[in-house]
Amino acid sequence: MPVCVQQASKAVSTCQTAGNPPESWDQDDRSTTLDAESAESAQAEEEEKEEEQKDMEDGELTEDEVAKYLSNLGRSATGLQHVYLSLSIPRKSLKNVSILSNYIHLQKLELPNNKIKDLSCVSHMPYLIVLDVSHNEISDFFGFQPPKNLKEVDFSHNHISSMKDLSAYTCLRKLILDYNSISEIRGLEKCSSLTHLSMEHNKILRISGLRNLPLRQLYLKGNLIKRTENLQTLRTLQILDLSSNRIQSLSGLQDLHLLANINLESNMVGEIKECTHLQYLLLLRDLNLKRNPVQEQPDYRLAVIFILNHLTVMDEKPVTVEEKVLAVNKYDPSLEVVAARDHMTHMMYQHMQPQGIFDSTLPSLDTPYPMLVLTGPQACGKRELAHKLCHEYSDFFGYGACHTTRGPYFGEEDGCDYHFVQDEEFQNMIRMGSFVQTMQYGGHWYGLSREAIESVAREGLACCVHMELEGVFSLKTSYFEPRYILLIPTRIEDYVSHMKARGFYTKAQIEKAVSRIDLYTKINRERPGFFDSVIICDDRKEAYSALRQLIKEYLGLEEQEKEGRRSTGVTPQNATTDEGGESMTAKKLDANPTDTYSQNYYSKVQTRLLPQKTSAELASIHRRQQMVRDALVGKIPRAYTQLFKRYVHPVPSLLTPQSADHNEDSSSEESCTSSGLSMNGSAGVLSVGSPADGLDAGSGPKVEPLDVSLLGQNLERLKDHMEPGLSPDSSCSAPEQASPTVASSPGRPGSNAKPILPPIPLGRKAARICATADRAGRTGG
Ligand SMILES: Nc1ncnc2c1ncn2[C@@H]1O[C@H](COP(=O)(O)OP(=O)(O)OP(=O)(O)O)[C@@H](O)[C@H]1O
């Protein structure tokens, strides 16, 4: 307030002195008035000068004052005297600090928030290390002789408009020049120790003059910078703040491999793809792109997190694990995720439709509908081989034609190779729940419809289809359990020239197909059993004969041929359609019931959904296993020994007449034994079958030891599969009832079981198979 009053009175007096005289004054009076006036103004000037002088004296640092603020008593650099090393005088409106020339031993000088313009006193401080003259009125950049050890300088909030050569300041580590009017960075070339440079809120138009500096932190916030240029030599840079500039592109940052923190808030970055310039900065953890146009891009955050997957903080918000997983699932989902999504989509749309039963492909409890899938990269010959196979083994296989939105190639027929449909129709079919699986390949949709499989199944044939790897993954999530045969080219040149020769493919398509060979081989290498068989398809003829051989093994036709040739001398071609051969095939198929697929779709899903066992449950399993072990060494009453007997009751026929034909085989026993393991809840006794069945320890050759290691597992599985109120024993004692079964041998890919297709359903072969069944019935079924 006093200052204001003083200023106001000063203004009034000035105004009065400088104002024009009133017009009414006459000429005579004028001379005397002027004399008086000049005397007054001289007096006023004198007063002003005195006031200024007083002000100067106020802003002048005196020895007494210095004495008050000195601190940090220590030894002088020469080590001979005790001296004060630090002086800190903030907010004193100091203007003249020339007295400090006498304080030559100062190592730290802090004079922030004063009115200092001249710093020449620093020239007399050769040992100065830290200088803070922020918030002053300095316009002369480093206007003093260089103290050779000067390490930290703060010139922020001054009036500096240009930089000068600082080559004498080789020790300078930290330089703060925020809030000045500097338009160009220069003079720092020789500052070989400079690790921290801050020039925020200046008028810098472009980044320059930083070449090869060992900077770790660079702050250039609030300038007029448009490009992230001339930074590539700052190899040690860790923190870069370029917020509040005009940057559009992030190109130029890609070589700064130590960057951990980039602040680009309030710039003009508009494209997500700009982040790809940062994707190889593996140490980058914190990126701020707030208030950039890029924020408006859909899924901006997820996309950036996907590109820069090492980020832990983005736009000042921590990046969560969930976000990282979401980002990967969105932009580069694994084959499993794609398959799961595909399956989910089709299941959902299917369930939204009125439910109809596809009777021919309906999965039974232990035998799925038989399917054969040929897979491999595009144009490896799988389609050709599938057609050939279905033609030669037309009594066993029918070709399942997929739907596609691509147009037919020359010579392709609608309904034969594919069902060619428009995109709209394909999408409609998806929404109608028509597909089992779909995939996009080369910009077109492909899909295997339920109806395509069912129409083959209605013919009494197994369905043979071809598809890419994604289709296989998807099909594996469905209740179908096909055999998968991988056809893989190994001579890449031949493969490429074959594709070129077909004349359908662009260079990019060929490259894509070739690149996918690795994907197939990788899956085959890393997931043993994922494919049931692998056939090299460099030579189509050889590939087909390998496939043919495999199929004959699958169908059991090999032995049939041998037998047939031995007894009747029929040719292999005839053998497949020969009635005797057919019955042989049926026999072969049923003679290995341990190969049936017990883990049907529902139990698979159930198993996946089962929670982890609690410690109580594990203890229970352990107890029961112990009981069994005790029984083995005879410690337990006789009732337990029944566990180790094979159950001989015939298994209910859920399959074809062929399987009924073999119910008396040991296979049925096995199936029932494993499925019949049960816990008698009331008695707390484990039992198999009923005593009424005449089972007794040691009675007859049918008593075989049970695989004890499987016991706990089977008990648990059975428990899970049992409906409440359903007696476990009833599964065996009432064969006509379709009870849940848990077969002992899964016979799935990767198991040691010889691969065999499930029984071909009734159809074209019905008459012959019925005849076989009749014969079996007559002989004792
Ligand atoms: N339903 C499906 N699911 C997944 N992939 C499929 C499906 N139907 C076809 N495919 C595969 O899509 C790829 C492209 O099919 P397309 O018929 O256009 O190729 P192509 O050049 O004729 O090669 P190919 O001789 O292997 O069929 C092929 O590898 C094909 O096997």
UniProtKB/TrEMBL annotation:
Residues 669-678 have a biased composition (Low complexity). PANTHER family: GUANYLATE KINASE-RELATED, LEUCINE-RICH REPEAT AND GUANYLATE KINASE DOMAIN-CONTAINING PROTEIN. The keyword Lipid biosynthesis does not apply. Residues 43-61 have a biased composition (Acidic residues). Residues 13-61, 561-597, 655-705, 720-765 are annotated as: Disordered. CDD domains: GMPK (cd00071). It holds the Pfam family LRR_9. Residues 568-577, 728-744 have a biased composition (Polar residues). The keyword Repeat applies. SMART domains: GuKc (SM00072), LRR_SD22 (SM00365). Keywords: Leucine-rich repeat, Repeat, Transferase. InterPro entries: GK/Ca_channel_bsu, Guanylate_kin-like_dom, Leu-rich_rpt, Leu-rich_rpt_4, LRR_dom_sf, P-loop_NTPase. It comes from the Eukaryota. It comes from Pangasianodon hypophthalmus (Striped catfish). GO terms for cellular component: cytosol. SUPFAM superfamilies: L domain-like (SSF52058), P-loop containing nucleoside triphosphate hydrolases (SSF52540). One of its GO terms (molecular function) is GMP kinase activity. This is Guanylate kinase-like domain-containing protein. Residues 369-552 form the Guanylate kinase-like domain.
